């Protein structure tokens, strides 16, 4: 399977322009015989939604979105989804002009400069899904930082995790380096869930924030097999072998003994004790 990482610099609020750029990159990826093109989080709308006066949310059945996948490769595209009453930070998977899967971001950060809960509502489901290439799952940016979600995706049969992101460069004078954290997180996730991980981050400057890029593909052993440059827009194409998943999981069957009943009992206890949802 050949995957293209479309590390883009979108323009805030310019849906038409971002759509045109996405189509151009998809055609470029098709010329390189890519099977799947993955774009960053909110790649059609931009991130700083609070600075926009107009509602730029899109319907998942917008024909312009489906048309992106009529050039050959499947497409994962990020946008603000119009859910009628509520909006969602969503990543949509299209294939052959059809919507295959819609992942609505589950964990919306609401600290420092991130104010996603002002503009979107969290999703309610995490599902692996079947494609013509294999069984995949999508986790949008902060979703991947929740340890249970990659594990749940793997338990649901995901062979490849797609992680669109809007990760900014260092925001404070402290020791927190997002690029370093992402490196460690992606390595850990690929190794422990024994799956491929496709991470696609954006680049460019928006609302005083600079996005660093660094998109990459990590194999089931935790090795980076392809990476995009920091700071610059790029289209990175890489071949991956999904059959490596079966070999890896047979070598060390980390996922086989999940004890889901035990987890359900302990989760029920914690919910009852804390009142958390």
TrEMBL record:
* Entries under PROSITE patterns matching the protein: CN_HYDROLASE (PS50263)
Q: Which Gene Ontology terms cover its molecular function?
A: hydrolase activity
The answer on whether this UniProt entry bears the keyword Hydrolase reads yes
Q: Give UniProt keywords alphabetically.
A: Hydrolase
| CN hydrolase domain boundaries | 1-242
| Superkingdom, natural source | Bacteria
**Gene3D superfamilies in the cross-refs:** Carbon-nitrogen hydrolase
Q: What is this protein called?
A: Nitrilase-related carbon-nitrogen hydrolase
């Amino acid at each position: 399977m050949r995957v293209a990482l479309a590390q883009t610099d979108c323009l805030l609020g310019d849906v038409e322009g971002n759509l045109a750029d996405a189509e151009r990159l998809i055609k470029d990826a098709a010329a390189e015989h890519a099977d799947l093109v993955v774009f960053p989080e909110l790649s059609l709308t931009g991130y700083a939604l609070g600075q926009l006066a107009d509602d730029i949310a899109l319907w998942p059945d917008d024909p312009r979105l489906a048309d992106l996948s009529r050039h050959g490769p499947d497409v994962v595209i990020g946008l603000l989804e119009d859910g009628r009453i509520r909006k969602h930070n969503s990543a949509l998977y299209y294939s052959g002009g059809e919507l295959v899967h819609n992942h609505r971001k589950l964990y919306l950060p609401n600290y420092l400069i991130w104010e996603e809960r002002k503009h979107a509502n969290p999703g309610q489901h995490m599902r692996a899904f079947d494609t013509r290439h294999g069984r995949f799952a999508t986790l949008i940016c902060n979703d991947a930082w929740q340890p249970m979600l990659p594990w749940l995706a793997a338990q649901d049969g995901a062979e490849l995790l797609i992680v669109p992101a809007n990760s900014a460069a260092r925001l404070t004078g402290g020791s927190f380096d997002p690029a370093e954290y992402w490196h460690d997180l992606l390595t850990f996730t690929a190794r422990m869930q024994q799956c491929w991980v496709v991470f696609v981050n954006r680049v460019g400057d928006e609302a005083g924030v600079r996005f660093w890029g660094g998109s990459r593909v990590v194999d089931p052993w935790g090795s980076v097999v392809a990476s995009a440059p920091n700071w610059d827009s790029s289209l990175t194409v890489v071949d991956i072998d999904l059959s490596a998943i079966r070999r890896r999981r047979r070598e060390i069957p980390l996922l086989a003994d999940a004890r889901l009943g035990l987890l359900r009992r302990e989760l029920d206890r914690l919910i009852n004790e804390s009142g958390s949802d």
